[in-house]
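Need a sequence for this fold. Nothing fancy.
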């Protein structure tokens, strides 16, 4: 049986210090339990290693939580990685055994998806049914009655077939999250992380629709950027301005719209990531 932080709050403090040291050195990288050229993903930084048994032995935390941290947080800005990881770990009581909690976290995430669907059309109802079936498998796993591999396969098949029929990009994105949940987290420890990763994404099509960015906007911007390169940079190695600086100078209206669109994209992505983090924290708190 694992005991969170091996029963010692100081172990958590030391792990967070390791993470902060890597962050200060600019050595955090995206990925899942990954170490390369001195850089580490957040979970690997916490343990000082990308080896899963080392993670469990050093921190007393199950492997699925390492993947959850990296999938959910590693692509965020550094200050958000630090804040989110600290908030998560400080909510875990030293000595708690989280080994069997993975299915509980997935179940709570699935519940949050159903809550978010405002659409109750006939198109979405089969997705609700697939979600309920997958959630029931996780609830069954939590009770100690392990679902069969065939049951997981059947649930995945039903979810995939339902997703393939959807058209709305928002609904389809959440459906992908439901599909990812149709795995046994005991045998697939990346399941929780994958579900969180998809829960924290927002489709480009949805962002474009919200902002009002059109195919014509995209075509014009690409054309103008290519024009800036060909006219001012291609045959002029001494040119120090990049295409975006040149766009601002020669086509300020296009640059202003592109900048507004980029800021809107970043804000929507940050909002989606924050929502996934909130769901994650709520699930962990619910499970004790």
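Here you go.
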């Amino acid at each position: 049986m694992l005991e969170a932080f091996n029963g010692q709050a100081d172990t958590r403090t030391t792990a967070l210090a390791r993470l902060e040291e890597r962050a200060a050195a600019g050595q955090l990288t995206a990925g899942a339990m990954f170490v390369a050229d001195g850089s580490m993903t957040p979970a690997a930084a916490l343990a000082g290693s990308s080896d899963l048994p080392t993670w469990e032995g050093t921190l007393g935390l199950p492997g699925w939580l390492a993947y959850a941290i990296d999938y959910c947080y590693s692509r965020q800005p550094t200050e958000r990685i630090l804040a989110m990881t600290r908030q998560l770990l400080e909510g875990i009581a030293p000595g708690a055994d989280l080994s069997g909690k993975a299915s509980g976290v997935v179940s709570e995430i699935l519940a949050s998806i159903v809550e978010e669907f405002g659409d109750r059309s006939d198109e979405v109802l089969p997705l609700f049914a697939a979600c309920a079936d997958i959630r029931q498998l996780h609830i069954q796993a939590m009770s100690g009655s392990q679902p069969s591999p065939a049951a997981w396969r059947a649930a995945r098949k039903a979810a995939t077939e339902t997703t393939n029929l959807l058209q709305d990009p928002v609904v389809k994105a959440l459906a992908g999250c439901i599909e990812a949940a149709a795995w046994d987290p005991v045998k697939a420890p990346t399941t929780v992380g994958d579900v969180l990763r998809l829960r924290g994404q927002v489709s480009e099509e949805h962002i474009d629709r919200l902002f009002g960015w059109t195919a014509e906007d995209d075509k014009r911007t690409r054309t103008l950027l290519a024009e800036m390169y060909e006219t001012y940079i291609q045959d002029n190695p001494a040119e120090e301005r990049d295409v975006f600086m040149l766009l601002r100078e020669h086509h300020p209206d296009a640059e202003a719209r592109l900048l507004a669109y980029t800021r809107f994209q970043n804000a929507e992505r940050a909002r989606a990531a924050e929502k996934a983090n909130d769901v994650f924290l709520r699930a962990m708190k619910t499970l004790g």
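For context: The two ends are 16 Å apart (CA to CA).
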